[in-house]
Design brief:
The complex is a heterodimer of chains A (about 220) and B (about 45).
Chain A (H helix, E strand, L loop, with lengths): L1 H23 L13 H28 L2 H33 L7 H21 L4 H15 L2 H11 L17 H44 L1
Helix pairs in contact in A: 1-7, 2-3, 2-5, 2-7, 3-4, 3-7, 4-5, 4-6
Chain B lengths: L3 H43 L1
Classes of the chains: A mainly alpha (about 220), B mainly alpha (about 45).
Chain lengths: ~220, ~45
Amino acid sequence: MSKVLGAAAVVILLSASAYGAFFLAPNELTMGFVQRIFYLHAPCGMTALAAFMVCFVGNLGYLFKREAKWDWLGVSSAEVGLAFCTVVLLTGPIWAKPAWGVYWAWDARLTSTLVLWLLYLSYLILRTMVDDPDRRALISSFYGVFIFLDVPLVYGSIWWWRTQHPQPVVFTSGGLNPEMRKIFYLSWLSLTALMVLLIRQRYELEAVRAEAQTLAREAEAA
Amino acid sequence: MKNLGSVMVAYMIGWGVFFVYFVTVARRTADLRKDVERLKQSLTRGK
């Protein structure tokens, strides 16, 4: 019941944020209507980084505690983070074409984000190559801690290098109109709630899978 | 409303990715639950 209520709350939040983005947000002066992709693209990027941070915590937790639940948290948040990162990489070019005149530019932010997506994809592929659950958890936890190094690189890329990608507007004074800021925060909240819902759902899948594997071993031994 | 189509496509892709992912995970979990029930029954019968 709580899962249904949680999912309903997320759907309501997402609908409200989309309504705000389409109908309430003021038109941006230079880019016009297409700037409304910002309310999906930017919060998705921040939520992806948050999910990868959770993955990092899960990986560290496993390395220190060697308990399967930390590994489950790691893989769940990596997969969910990858879904958010996919949306970032797909919506970015749709916005870039009318705004920049090109779908893609090999600048530091875009390239480091693509590398991040590839790294977490490789994390998930790596897990399919190791059969033993303990060994899989250990190898992927080490690898997960290592690939997390790209997350601060993605975040800092727009400060450290000259990029085609715009500078941050959310946490800077005067960067966003107050109406735009409210809708941005609503979108960010709704996508964070969605991230939590998806990680919980994916974590449950890992728990059920572990139970099935234990029972299968018992059935084989019997 | 110039570029309305681009904004619509971006939102449809975004929501589509999340919806497909949610449904896929829910289906995989449901299938595994069925496996768990089947294994529990076969273990109970074996005892």
